[in-house]
Write a structure and sequence with these properties.
7 helices; Arc Repressor Mutant, subunit A; 2 domains; two-stranded parallel sheet
């Protein structure tokens, strides 16, 4: 364990089970478990990348635990926040609007894509009716202005960036010109 500053502690802990942070406990950023000195370095680098993603979110919205697996590509894309914001908008179109209706659509599509386009599985995870998922997916495609299958990997990464970073990568109201 090594204090980094007045607010941060770097620690390498054997964690064979899943971490479950307490609701009012500290914020944690973790890397993937690895062995040896090289493993320590890799895990520490991943944890720092996960922390950069977590710290980009306002404290009220910040997850208590951000893992390297959750942060993934978003941590690498955070190197240039302005470019990331422009890219997210280019990929998602008006689906990247920073408001509650679009947030619901983004979350529905993110989960739907994670379930390989299964409306039933997404509905079960989101505690929605299957038809609601179908409706939201259609609305999301309309907001995006093209099918969600077009540049699907980009769509998934952009949605993950929105999920993790929220307003930091989202735009204002859609342009109605």
């Amino acid at each position: 364990m090594l204090p980094a500053d007045g607010w941060t502690v770097h620690a390498w802990l054997p964690a064979p089970g899943a971490l479950t942070p307490e609701e009012d406990g500290p914020w944690l950023a973790v890397g993937d478990p690895a062995a040896g000195v090289d493993g320590f370095r890799r895990t520490h680098q991943q944890a720092r990348q996960a922390a950069s993603v977590a710290l980009a979110v306002p404290p009220a919205r910040r997850a208590r635990l951000t893992s390297a697996a959750d942060a993934g590509l978003v941590a690498l894309l955070r190197a240039d926040p302005d470019a990331l914001r422009v890219w997210v908008r280019a990929v998602l179109g008006d689906l990247a609007t920073d408001d509650e209706p679009h947030a619901r659509l983004r979350e529905t599509v993110r989960v739907w894509l994670a379930h390989q386009g299964s409306h039933t599985a997404a509905a079960a995870e989101l505690l929605l009716h299957r038809n609601t998922v179908q409706y939201r997916v259609r609305r999301a495609e309309a907001a995006r202005g093209r099918p969600l299958s077009e540049r699907r990997l980009d769509v998934e990464v952009a949605l993950q960036a929105c999920h993790l970073l929220g307003s930091a990568v989202l735009g204002g109201a859609p342009d109605r010109r």
